[in-house]
Specification:
The protein is an alpha/beta fold and 479 residues long. The protein has two domains: 97 residues, Urease, subunit C, domain 1, CATH 2.30.40.10; 290 residues, TIM Barrel (Alpha-Beta Barrel). Helices cover 36% and strands 23% of the residues. The strands form three sheets. The protein has an eight-stranded mixed beta sheet. It has an eight-stranded parallel beta sheet with strand order 5-6-7-10-11-12-13-14. Helix 2 packs across helix 15, helix 5 runs parallel beside helix 7 and helix 12 packs across helix 13.
Length: 479
Amino acid sequence: MIDLLVTAGTIITVDGERRVIADGAVAVDAGRIVAVGSAAGVMAAYPARQHVDMPDGVAMPGLVDAHGHAGHSLIRTMADDLDGWMSACARVYKHGATPEFWGAEAQLAAVEKLMAGTTTSLSMLGGSGDTIRSDAPEHGTAHLEGYAEVGVRAVMVVGPGAPPFPKLTTLHARGTTREVASSYADQMATVNALVSDWKTHNMVAVALTYPTLSMEAIGATPDPALVAGAGGVRSLSEEAGLLIVQDGHRADTVEASSRLGLLGSRSLLSHSIDLDESHIELIARAGASVAHNPSAIYSQFGRCPVPELLDAGVTVGLGSDATAPDRSADMFRHMYQLTRYHRADRRDPALFPPGTTLEMATIGSATALGMGEDVGSIEVGKAADVILLDVAKPHLTPFTHPVHQIVYFATGADVDTVIVGGQVLMQDRLVKSVDVGSVLEAGRDEQARAFARVGLEPPATRDGFWGSARYPDGAGSVL
C-alpha cells in the first residue's frame, strides 16, 4: 500500500510528452511519484493510505519561482519611490534586522508562496550587493529554518560583497547589539558555515552570489582584490556544486562576469535586460541560465530578450522578484504578465503560447535552479510536489482548455491543495504545517521592532498620487 493517491478531473503533467490527462491520478510513495495515468488504472494498481480527490480540480506541478528576495515581505509597504525603497531595504537589512526578523519574514513569505501554489523558490538573503547579510550565519540560519518549518523547498542565496572592505553592519543577537566591520574573509567564513550546516537538508539549500558589476566598474585591469573575491566564490561553487546567482544583470555586466570567471553552467543571471547578440552568445556558450522577472522594476528599465535567449538554447526560468512594493509572490500573475510584457513590446500576439509560459514557471525554473531532475513536472521518479486548483469557479467555467485557462485566468487564490515531497501542506486552503495567524502576528511584530531600531516611518503620500497620470517628480517614481 502506497502513502498517497491524488485524483483529479485534469492532470497537467509538464512531463517530457507534455501530457494533459483527463480523469487522472498520481500515486505517491516515500515522497516520490510512482505512477501517473488514468484514475481507473492507477487506483486499481496502487491502493493508498491517503486519498486526495478533486473531481472538479486540476493537478499540476508545484510552481517554481526562480528569483526573489528575503526580507522584502516586511519592507514592501515602506516606500512608493525607488530611492526610498532602496534606502529602507539598506537600513533595515544592514542595521535593523535580527535573526528573528529573518525567520519571521521567511515564514511569512513561505506561507504566501505556499498558498499561491509555489512549492520551490529562490531568495537572495537581502537585496543585492552590500545588503546581502553575510556578516554572521545566524541570519541565514533563521531564514532557512523558517522555510523548512513551513515545508516548502527553498534556495537561499548568500555571498560576499565586492571591495572595498570592511562592510559595516549592526548585529542584534542574544540580547546584545554591536557594530560589525566584516572583511571578505569574515563574509566567506559565514558563507562556508551556512553551506556546511545545510548541505544535507532535503528541502532547503544554499547558493552563492557575487555583486553584479559593469565593464566600467571592473576596468581594463580589474582590482586584484575583486578578481580574488570572485575567484573565491567560483572555487566554492565548483567544490560544493552550488549555483552562483547574480542579481540585476544588464548589457555589459554579462561580459564583466565572464571576465571575472563567474559565468558557467552553474550561473543564474537575474533580469538580464538590454542584452545584445554578443551577450546572448556569451550566456549560451557558458551554459548559464536566466531568471526573467517580467513584473519587476528592472523590466520597466529595459527588455529581457527572452525569445532570443530561448532560440539560442538558454534555459530561462520565471521569477517574481518578490515580495517587493509593487508585486506579489503569485506566480500565476507573473505568468500572465510574461505574455503581456513581450507581446506589447514586440507588437506580436503570437509570442508566448500558454504551454511555453507554463513551462517557464515549472520545468524551466526548476532547470535554471539545477533542480530539473527532481521537481518541475509530474513524472515517475520525481519528488511529489503537486498542487491542485479548484476550477469549479465562475472565471474558470466552463473548463474546456486546461493549460490556456490556467495561464490566462487562474490566480494563486484558486489553489486548494499543496503537496510537497508527498506531504499535504495545505488542503481546502487550510495550511497544516504552521499556524497562519501566528505567522502573520510574528511578521507584524518583527517589522515594528526592526523599523524602530533604524527610525523608519511609513512614507507620506507623494504629490501626484491621486489625479495624475504620472508622478510630477518623475525619475524616482517607478513603483
